[in-house]
Write a structure and sequence with these properties.
Elements lengths: L2 H4 L1 H25 L9 E3 L1 H17 L15 E3 L14 H33 L6
Antiparallel strand pairs: 1-2
Helix pairs in contact: 2-3, 2-4
Length: about 130
């Protein structure tokens, strides 16, 4: 909790990781239900959810609002995909598309982890008085 006040960049990166984990869970659930009749694939609207996180972070730094820790920052941004007209069982999961979502999401997750590691290294360097301490 104190991290968001000490370094809002780390807090924002952390929320991004939370969203990436949520998207990963949705994609794996979609793949697991690829043969379930009438199952509607779910997808996180990452951009809308992340914009909400960024607006909260900006409000925090402006002092206009407290950064809400509401847990599920993507609430209301999960879309259900309708089945195509040619789907015989009403299932809207496209396993190939879900695999692309997983791979892309994994790459972006790893890039965010790398950004966090670099930010932490900068903070560690600053805390050691530029490597003198």
């Amino acid at each position: 909790m104190a991290g968001r006040f000490l370094d809002p960049v780390l807090s924002t990166l952390s929320k991004s990781l939370d969203l990436r984990m949520q998207q990963h869970g949705l994609a794996t659930s979609n793949i697991a239900n690829a043969q379930t009749p009438e199952y509607r694939a779910k997808r996180l609207d990452f951009e809308a959810a992340f914009n909400r996180v960024m607006e909260s972070a900006e409000a925090q730094t402006d002092g206009t609002a407290a950064f809400a820790d509401d847990g599920d920052v993507a609430e209301g941004h999960i879309d259900e995909i309708d089945a195509p007209a040619w789907s015989e069982d009403g299932n809207s999961v496209n396993p190939d598309e879900e695999m692309v979502v997983l791979v892309t999401n994994n790459m972006l997750f790893n890039a965010t982890v790398e950004a966090m590691n670099r930010r932490l290294a900068m903070l560690e360097y600053a805390a050691s008085d530029g490597g003198r301490g």
